[in-house]
Amino acid sequence: MDIRPVQPADLNALIAIDGTIESLNYLHVDRAGEGLTIHWKVEERPLRTKWVDRNRPGDELQFLAKQIAAGIEEGVAVLAEHDGATIGQMLAQPTPQFGTMRLIDIRVDYDFRRQGIASGMLYQLITEARSRELRAVSAEVAANNEPACRLLLKRGFDLAGLDTQRHSNHDLVKEAATLLWYASLT
Question: Which domain range does residue 152 map to?
Fold first, then answer.
C-alpha cells in the first residue's frame, strides 16, 4: 500500500471509491437547561434502524480536490493505493486564523476498511500540521456517523463541541447534530 499526494490525473479514480457508511449506533446529544445555564450530554445509543449512506463525494468536494491537486488552493490531498487501485483519499485545508488544519474528508473503500489506511492518512495529516507549526487538527462529523467518531477518538481527537443547528433546527430529533473534534498538537 502507498499513500501519496493526489495528482490531477487521479481525480476520476477518487470518485470511484466506495465510501459507504454503515452504522448501528449514533452519539445521542441531550440538551438540558436554558440560556447561559445550558448543559449537553453526549452518549452512544443504538439507531432505530441501521443507517447506510453511500457517501458519494459531492460537486464541492470534487472541486476542492481538483483545486488542491492542481496547486490552486492550499491544502493536503492524499490518496491510498493498493496494487494500482485507489482505495482511499483524504482532503484537508489549513485555517491560519485559528492555527488549525481542518480535515474535510477522509474515505476508505468499503472492501479495504479496518486495515489502518485511514489511520495512516491521519498520521500524515498530523505530521503535515506539525510541520506547519499549527496548534491542532480539527474535524466535523455528524453524530450518526459513529464509525468516523470512533476513528477520531481512537486517533487522539477530543470531542470539543457540537452544532445542533448546522443543517436545521430538527437535527437532534433526526440524530444528526454536527460534532466538533480537535487533536491538539501542542
Answer: 2-184
Helix (H, G, I), strand (E, B) or coil at 119: helix
What percentage of the chain carries pLDDT values higher than 70? 94
User: In whole angstroms, what is the distance from residue 132 CA to residue 184 CA?
Assistant: 14
Q: E strands within the chain?
A: 2-5, 21-32, 39-53, 76-82, 85-95, 100-108, 136-142, 158-163, 178-184
pTM of the model: 0.86
CB 177 within 8 A of CB 171: yes
From residue 30, alpha-carbon distances to 27, 75, 110 in Å are 10, 35, 31
**Beta strands 136-142; 100-108: pairing state:** parallel
Taking residue 49's Cβ as centre, other Cβ atoms within 10 Å add up to 7
Q: Crossing angle of helices 117-131/146-154, nearest 10°?
A: 60
136-142 and 178-184 strand pairing: antiparallel
Q: Domain count for the chain, please give it.
A: 1
What whole-number distance in Å separates Cα of residue 65 and Cα of residue 61? 6
CATH code at position 17? 3.40.630.30
Cβ atoms of 17 and 96 closer than 8 Å: no
pLDDT (tens digit, 9 = 90+) per residue, 137-176?
999 998 888 899 999 999 999 999 888 776 554 444 455 6
Give the DSSP H or E segment for 14: helix 11-15
